[in-house]
Amino acid sequence: MTGAAKLNVAIYEEVEADTSATGQAMAVVCLSSLAMGIGYTGALGAPSVADILIMVLLALSSWFIWAFINYFIGARLFPEPQTRADHGELLRTMGFAQSPRLLLLIGIFPGFGVNETLGQVLAFAISVWMLSTMIVAVRQALDYKSTVRAGAVCFVGLMVSGILLNLCLGVLVGIGVLG
């Protein structure tokens, strides 16, 4: 996780190739979403067990959907000549790319909550850092030479997956599953 957070290309290549690392990538997604949720409790109050479960399920759903959309866009619609990838490679690299989000746990300390200026600055910095790790993850998984192309795939994939997740959440709220 440290290597992924440091944008170490060799780590992303290793994770991409290691088909047994998908579970580890899922663990990073779960832990980072828990860290974010716990860090936000300093400002928002303690979440219920149901809130934590929903948060982890949303993080896992977001990760899976965003990785699939990035795979489809990057490997099927706009591949570079050397692009050879599958959905699993994007799941693994993008899972480990969420490592910086673990630092949001700092929000439990006074002055660092999301309703504090310093906490907001740190949350923004961590978001930018995580976007950087995602771009490197996508670039390596898709074997792109262009970082700009990987960034474009991440951006479009994020927008499309965000729309899909919001539609799903709207349906779940509408039928009374969430509320």
UniProtKB/TrEMBL annotation:
Membrane-traversing stretches: 25-46, 52-73, 94-112, 118-138, 150-178
This protein's UniProt keywords: Membrane, Transmembrane, Transmembrane helix
Transmembrane helix in keyword set: yes
Name of this protein: Yip1 domain-containing protein
Protein source organism: marine metagenome
